[in-house]
């Protein structure tokens, strides 16, 4: 049995009795967060890209928990320079971890962090496919709609898809519905909305538009959903 716990924005964890994977832990400064980062468990921290609303607390959390950060090469090396234990990967590559296989996919977005010296680019943004507890999950990361989502759906058959609906920085509701038509998951969990004024969306409009295409699960920050 695996569970998905949502922590607000694009941060969620996947957990079974043995492993907890935490994605994009933007907790400090996240107006949606209901828990402090110190209360959130993680054995592995997976990052889709380097924007501050995704890398968030990843480095201090990884150090405190001796957790491994899994990310694309440039982003992983950035985290390593800050003292975190990392596993670097590249788009199209997969690796079998103790909890299951991770594959990075493309995402059409940016990946950079703003430092005192200006902007530091952190390689390509990614989506993440994870084989975990007998299921395949596809976290698209921040992305616009792209046609190869159909290929990802056809080849890897993800049953659970986590995708943004906030618009402005990523897909909005209409494009996210098109993504679902291409990927054809059983379960879809919308993220990356209502955190900031420019990404306000009604997730139940999305639920209605998804209709019978998939089971749409709207999670409030702090909610846990059992994958049955
Ligand atoms: Ni982003
Ligand atoms: Mn974002």
Describe the structure.
The structure is a single chain. The chain is of the alpha/beta class. It has helices at 52-55, 58-65, 73-81, 149-156, 173-183, 203-210, and strands at residues 2-8, 11-15, 20-23, 44-46, 68-72, 85-89, 94-97, 100-106, 112-115, 118-121, 126-132, 135-139, 160-164, 187-191, 215-216, 224-227. α4 (149-156) links the parallel β12 (135-139) and β13.
What's the arrangement of secondary structure elements?
Elements: E1 2-8, E2 11-15, E3 20-23, E4 44-46, H1 52-55, H2 58-65, E5 68-72, H3 73-81, E6 85-89, E7 94-97, E8 100-106, E9 112-115, E10 118-121, E11 126-132, E12 135-139, H4 149-156, E13 160-164, H5 173-183, E14 187-191, H6 203-210, E15 215-216, E16 224-227
Parallel strand pairs: 3-4, 4-5, 5-6, 12-13, 13-14, 14-15
Antiparallel strand pairs: 1-2, 1-16, 2-3, 7-8, 8-11, 9-10, 11-12
Bound molecules: nickel (II) ion (NI) and manganese (II) ion (MN).
What is the name of the CATH superfamily? Ribonuclease Z/Hydroxyacylglutathione hydrolase-like
Measured between the Cα atoms of the first and last residue, the distance is: 7 Å
Output the radius of gyration. 16 Å
Largest sheet: 7 strands, mixed
- Order of adjacent strands in the largest pleated sheet: 6-5-4-3-2-1-16
CATH topology call: Metallo-beta-lactamase, Chain A
Average pLDDT over all residues: 98
Percentage of residues assigned to helices: 10-25%
Helix/strand/pairing class, anyone? Answer: alpha/beta
The geometry reads as globular
Kindly estimate the percentage of residues that lie in beta strands according to DSSP: 25-35%
Ligands, ions, cofactors: nickel (II) ion, manganese (II) ion
Low-confidence region ranges? none
Number-wise, the strands total 16
Element-by-element helix/strand order:
EEEEHHEHEEEEEEEHEHEHEE
- What is the level-2 CATH architecture name? 4-Layer Sandwich
Number of helices, where a helix is a run of at least 4 consecutive DSSP H or I residues: 6
Count the domains: 1
CATH class equals Alpha Beta
């Amino acid at each position: 049995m695996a569970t998905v716990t949502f922590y607000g924005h694009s941060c969620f964890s996947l957990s079974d009795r043995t492993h907890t994977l935490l994605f994009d832990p933007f907790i400090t400064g996240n107006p949606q967060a209901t828990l402090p980062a110190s209360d959130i468990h993680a054995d592995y921290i997976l990052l889709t890209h380097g924007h501050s609303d995704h890398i968030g607390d990843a480095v201090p959390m990884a150090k405190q928990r001796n957790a491994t950060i899994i990310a694309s090469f440039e982003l992983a090396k950035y985290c390593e320079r800050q003292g975190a234990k990392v596993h670097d990967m590249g788009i199209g590559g997969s690796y079998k971890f103790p909890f299951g296989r991770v594959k990075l996919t493309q995402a059409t977005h940016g990946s950079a962090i703003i430092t005192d010296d200006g902007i530091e680019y952190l390689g390509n943004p990614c989506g993440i496919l994870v084989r975990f507890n007998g299921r395949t999950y596809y976290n698209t990361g921040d992305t616009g709609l792209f046609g190869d989502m159909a290929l990802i759906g056809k080849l890897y058959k993800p049953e659970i898809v986590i995708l943004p609906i906030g618009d402005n920085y990523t897909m909005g509701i209409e494009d996210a519905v098109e993504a679902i038509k291409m990927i054809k998951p059983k379960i879809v969990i919308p993220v990356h909305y209502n955190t900031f004024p420019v990404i306000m969306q009604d997730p139940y409009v999305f639920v209605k538009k998804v209709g019978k295409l998939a089971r749409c699960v709207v999670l409030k920050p702090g909610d846990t959903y059992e994958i049955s």
